[in-house]
Amino acid sequence: MSLSFDPASVTLPRGHFIAGEWVDARDGIDLHRPSDAVAFAACPVADAELVDRAVTAAKSALAQSGWGRLAPRERARALHRWADLIEAEAETLARLEAIASTRPIAELMAGDVPVTAEQIRFFAEFADKEGGDLVPTGSDSFGMIATEPYGVVGAITPWNFPINMAGWKLGPALAAGNAVVLKPSEMTPFATLYLAQLSVRAGLPAGLINIVLGDGRTTGTAITGHPDIAKVSFTGSTAAGAAIMENIARTGIKPMTLELGGKSPQLVFADADLPQAAAAIARSILGNAGQACVAGSRLIVAESVAEELVGLIVERMRAVRPGPTWDAASAYSPIISERQIGRMESIVDAAVARGATCRLGGERLDHAGYFYAPTVLEGVDATSPAVTEEIFGPVLTVQTFREEEEGLGLADHPTYGLCAGLYTRDLSRALRAVNRLQAGTVWVNRYGRSRDHILPTGGYKQSGLGKDLGREAYLANRKSKSVLIAL
């Protein structure tokens, strides 16, 4: 049976989800489908009073259910039931996400939805396997480090991978014994709302997950500044992350995890397997039409193989199959909005005005909706706006080098340090480069995350603070207490 569907056939959740119930709200921000630019819904904006209601519901759920004090294995069982239900409702979740977002239905069914279930299961298994530590002290005392949940965690997720990012935030926070008030992006809220509804059906206490809709300025500010939000987790732009830090500092100190922007290099040496490298690089910039903080948007390649490699990449980029996200045959995403595609055009035009040339693309595709052609920009230097700014689209810049040191120097970005790709057959060179690259994640002879959720993700420089995924994400949702007992 085909996964394709008619977007008009999908019934969208309406309102906020607080204390296990739908909360009606007046329409707010008009939403347009990225695939055809048709207005189809509106997203309400929760004010400070409604956010306070959600926080109160979260506190009440914790107190009445004893979730944070529950036997850890009981928390794990509940989360596993939720993951089972996510898989059982995969098609509904995928449709809700596809209609509003840039994620094609086939990719959602094969990747995003099952990966979200995997993430919930992964973090569930930490619940009864991570605890405090006994520590060496003097012979007349007994020392230990105990851990406990924060209480209510505030989470804000972006529009580009909505359900996966919700899994990033909800999985570790709940496994660690917390409740969550989560704001999804105002552009892509629907699958996240249904995800929360499924948690109640799976037997998680109502109010443990509360979803409030709205924008960053009003709703996000109310969440991050709320005095009863004990910890904040955010994925989004560096500018938004800075605003969150400022708001937290102004309203009260609390820990935060920030996974922010990137402008990641892909460093290709002359001895690399070029077809393998070309395939990985093309996938990294074509996936979600480059709308990912980890997109490998800066190709830095040895001069002697640059022409061959770029030719292989261009060949792959020409073969994209754009189409609406509700068509199972579509294999190239639209851009999220008219505003975003306009910003992309301005950066590419500015780069060309400074001397860059478009080896491929550089224009909108003749297609309904917000589609931009895969673009390769040659002749850029380190000061080009296409190199310095996070474009968040399918735009790859090309720079060349002759010596290893020169290549490593070009790879180092003054602002960002989220990820980096590295291609070489020389193990010693690879290890030297890994040590030098200023990035929170380095992929060697590949590019992009795997389904090994044990590997944490997070950035250097202005690409963020703290880690998502991995053991680190679970521990970031527990606070520690030192205990010293006199014997």
Please characterize this protein's 3D structure.
- The mean pLDDT is 96.
- Helix content is 38%, strand content 20%.
- It has 487 residues and is of the alpha/beta class.
- Helix 2 packs across helix 6 and helix 3 packs antiparallel against helix 6.
- The protein folds into 2 domains: 7-260 and 464-486, Aldehyde Dehydrogenase, Chain A, domain 1; 265-461, Aldehyde Dehydrogenase, Chain A, domain 2, CATH 3.40.309.
- It is globular, with a radius of gyration of 23 Å.
CATH topology of the largest domain: Aldehyde Dehydrogenase, Chain A, domain 1
Kindly report the average pLDDT value.
96
> Distance between the terminal alpha carbons, to the nearest Å?
69 Å
Q: Note the main sheet.
A: 7 strands, mixed
Using the alpha-carbon principal axes, give the shape: globular
Q: What are the segments in which pLDDT stays under 50 over at least 5 consecutive residues?
A: none
CATH class of the largest domain: Alpha Beta
Overall tally of domains? 2
β-sheet strand percentage: 15-25%
Please state the structural category. Answer: alpha/beta
Strand order of the largest sheet: 14-15-16-13-12-18-19
Q: CATH homologous superfamily name of the largest domain?
A: Aldehyde Dehydrogenase, Chain A, domain 1
- What's the number of helices? 15
> Do you know the CATH architecture of the largest domain?
3-Layer(aba) Sandwich
Give a quick rundown of the structure:
The chain is built from 15 helices and 22 strands.
Attribute tags:
487 residues, alpha/beta, Aldehyde Dehydrogenase, Chain A, domain 1, Aldehyde Dehydrogenase, Chain A, domain 2, 2 domains, 7-stranded mixed sheet, 6-stranded mixed sheet, 15 helices, 20% strand, globular
